[in-house]
Amino acid sequence: MKKLLGCFLLSGLFSIKLFSQSSATTLDVVGWNLEFFGASFASGPADKDLQEANTKKIMRLLNADIYGLVEIVDTMRLRRLVDSLGNTEFGFVIAPYCSNNSTGTGNGWLTGQKQAFIYRKSVFSNVITRGLMRTSSTANTNWATGRFPFLLNANVTINTVTKNINFIVIHGKSGSTAPDYDRRRAGALELKDTLDAQYSNTLNIILGDYNDALNQTISTGSGPQSSYQPIIADSTDADHYKSITLPLAIAGQTTMINFPNVIDNHVISNEVVPFYVLNSVQIRTDITSVVPDYVTAHNTSDHWPVFSKYNLSGVITSVPNVPITEAGINAYPNPFIAELNIKAAKTLNNVQLNWMNMQGQVIHSQFYNRINAGSIIQPSIPHLSKGVYFLQVITKELRTVIKLTHLK
What we know:
Blueprint: E1 27-37, H1 48-62, E2 66-72, H2 75-86, E3 90-94, H3 106-110, E4 114-120, E5 124-131, H4 137-142, E6 150-158, E7 161-171, H5 178-198, E8 203-209, H6 229-232, E9 241-243, H7 246-250, E10 264-269, E11 282-283, E12 306-310, H8 324-327, E13 329-332, E14 341-344, E15 348-356, E16 362-371, E17 376-377, E18 387-394, E19 399-406
Parallel strand pairs: 1-2, 7-8
Antiparallel strand pairs: 1-12, 2-4, 3-4, 5-6, 6-7, 8-10, 9-10, 11-12, 13-14, 14-17, 15-16, 15-18, 18-19
C-alpha cells in the first residue's frame, strides 16, 4: 500500500518552497516525458542503464498512483522498471502504436517513441485501454503520423471511495513552425470533439507532453494563442476543461531543463474539478534530492515530472487558503513549550488540524466536529524537537497555516 507522506503545498505562505507529496488519502498523478527511454541509438541520455536507475529512484520518491509516460522506446527496460517498483503492486501498459507504426510490431514500433501508463494495482481495477481516433486519417496526420492519444479507463479506489476515471496521455506534434502549429491545433480540436461525443459526462484527466505552452504558443508566426486553445479556452459548454498547469506557465515556470515554457501539462474535465486538491499541481524539481545532477549531467530526461493530487471524496479540495486573521483563529502562546491554545473567533465545522515539519510532512493529525465561536481548545501535541513547525487548519470552507516555534 502507498505510504502516508501527506504534504501540502504551502509555497507563497512562507519563504521556503515545499512540494506536494503523495498521500494515502489522495489519488496522485504524474505525467513525465522520459526522453527516448532506453533507446538503443544516439538520442536522449547517453547512459541508458543510468537513465533507468535514476528513473527508479525518482519514481520511488514520487510514489504516485499512476504515471502517464511518453517517449518510451525500450519496453523491456520499462518492464524492469516496474519490476523494481514491485510488479505485485504496479502494472503497466504500452500503446500498441507509435508514429509511423499502427501494428505494435516490427522494428518501427520497437524503436519508436511510445506512450505508456504505470499504475498501482491496489488502487486501479478493471483497467481498459484504447487509442483514440485511430481510424481517423486527419488525426493520424495531426498527431505526429500515428501518435494518437492513449486512454486508460479504470475504477479508482482511495479510502473506500471509488470513481471511474479516464486518463489520457498525449504526445503532441513537435516543432515551432506554422505547419506544426496547425497540425497540433487541428489535433486538439478533433480530440475535443471526440471527448465531447464519447466522454461528455465522465471524469477525464489529459496529461503528457503537449509540445506547446497553454498560455501562449511556442510557434513563430502563428499568433499568441496556444495550439490547444480549442480545449483549454472552452469553458462555457457542458463539457469544458480546466488547465490546472496554466498558472504555472503564467508564473514563468518551465517543465524542461533547457526550454523556457510549460509544455508538459495536466488538463481536467469539469467533472474532475470538485476532486482536484487546490494548488497541488507542481513541477517536481525536487527530484534533484535523489538525482543531484539531473540538470547538469542531463542523465535521465530533459523534462521534469509534473504532479497533481485528487481527493475522491471531495472533502478538502478546492478550498481557498486564507490569512490567519481572516480565518479568525488565534494560536498562543507562540513560542510554546508544553501546551498550545487555539481560539476561534467564529464557529468552525469539520476541522482537521495537521502538524507539519519544515519539510511539509504531516507528523500528526487531529479532527474536531465543531469548534464554537469564542471557545478555546488545546490540541494534542506530538513529540517535538526544538524548532519551527506549521499547524494547518482545514475546514470545508477554508484552510490556513499557523507558523509555530517549539522551545523545548
